[in-house]
C-alpha cells in the first residue's frame, strides 16, 4: 500500500487548488443511468463508519494507513490509486510534529474537502474545494498550521472534528481539464501564498536533547 518508495518517473510539478461543482449543480448523477457495465454497481458508503488506525507512540504515519479503497496495479505495493480519508480522530503521538510533514513524493495527490476544516490548511481550503499536488511537488501545511503545531503541547487532542477530507493518491500523473483551469473560473491563483509567511527555523548545529528511542 505504501507506494512512496517508487522512483520518480516524472518531474512535472503542479500545485493548484480549485473548487468543484456538486452533482446537483452539474445537474447529473452517477445513479441516473440506464445500466452499469458488467459487475460495476453504484454504491453509497458512509465514510464516518470507516475505522482508521494511527500512531500511538511517536512519528507521523504515512497517510496510506487511512486507505479506504485501493486500485492495485501490476506492480506489488504500487497502487494505481488509493482512496484515503482524514476523518475525526485522536492525535496522541509524542516527540512529533503532528500535522502532515513537508514532503514531496512520487505519487500525485488529489485532495478534496467534503466538510469542515482540513487540519493542515484550516482557512485556505474550503468545502467543495480540491487541490492537486503532482508527482514530486513539494507541499505541506500552511504557515499558520506550522507555527501553531510547532508550539503546541503534545497532549492528546481531537483532530478534524466535524471534518471529512479525502485524497486520491496515484502513481500516475493527473491533468486538470481546460474546464477546470479556465472555463470554470474556479482556480485559486493564490494557493501558493499559504506558504509565503513560513519562516526559516533551520539551525544546523542544534541537537535534540532526547530524541525518540
Ligand atoms: O499533503 C497532504 O496534505 C496529504 C498528506 C497528509 C499526511 O498526513 C501525510 C502526507 C500527505 O501527503
Ligand atoms: Fe501530500
From TrEMBL:
Record bears the keyword Oxidoreductase: yes
Pfam families: HgmA_C, HgmA_N
Reactions listed under catalytic activity: homogentisate + O2 = 4-maleylacetoacetate + H(+)
Annotated GO biological process: L-phenylalanine catabolic process; L-tyrosine catabolic process
Catalytic residues identified in the record: 60 (proton acceptor)
Cofactor(s) recorded in Swiss-Prot or TrEMBL: Fe cation
GO cellular component terms listed in the entry, alphabetical order: cytoplasm
Positions of the Homogentisate 1,2-dioxygenase N-terminal domain: 25-47
Pathway participation: Amino-acid degradation; L-phenylalanine degradation; acetoacetate and fumarate from L-phenylalanine: step 4/6
Family classification: Belongs to the homogentisate dioxygenase family.
Task performed by this protein: Catalyzes the conversion of homogentisate to maleylacetoacetate.
Subunit structure and binding partners: Homohexamer arranged as a dimer of trimers.
Record protein name field: Homogentisate 1,2-dioxygenase
Species for this entry: Myotis myotis
Amino acid at each position: 500500500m505504501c507506494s512512496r518508495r517508487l522512483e520518480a518517473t516524472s518531474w512535472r510539478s503542479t500545485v493548484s487548488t480549485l473548487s468543484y461543482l456538486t452533482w446537483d449543480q452539474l445537474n447529473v448523477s452517477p445513479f441516473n443511468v440506464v445500466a452499469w457495465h458488467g459487475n460495476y454497481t453504484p454504491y453509497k458508503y458512509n465514510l464516518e463508519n470507516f475505522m482508521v488506525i494511527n500512531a500511538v507512540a511517536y512519528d507521523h504515519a504515512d497517510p496510506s494507513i487511512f486507505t479506504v479503497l485501493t486500485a492495485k496495479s501490476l506492480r506489488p505495493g504500487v497502487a494505481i490509486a488509493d482512496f484515503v480519508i482524514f476523518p475525526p480522530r485522536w492525535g496522541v503521538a509524542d516527540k512529533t510534529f503532528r500535522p502532515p510533514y513537508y514532503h514531496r513524493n512520487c505519487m500525485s495527490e488529489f485532495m478534496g474537502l467534503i466538510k469542515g476544516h482540513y487540519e493542515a490548511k484550516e482557512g485556505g481550503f474550503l468545502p467543495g474545494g480540491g487541490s492537486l499536488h503532482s508527482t514530486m511537488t513539494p507541499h505541506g501545511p500552511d504557515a499558520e498550521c506550522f507555527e501553531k503545531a510547532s508550539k503546541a503541547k503534545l497532549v492528546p487532542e481531537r483532530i478534524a472534528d466535524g471534518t471529512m477530507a479525502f485524497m486520491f493518491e496515484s502513481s500516475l500523473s493527473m491533468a486538470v481539464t481546460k474546464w477546470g483551469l479556465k472555463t470554470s473560473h474556479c482556480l485559486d491563483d493564490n494557493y501558493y501564498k499559504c506558504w509565503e509567511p513560513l519562516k526559516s527555523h533551520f539551525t544546523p548545529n542544534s541537537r535534540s536533547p532526547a530524541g525518540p528511542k
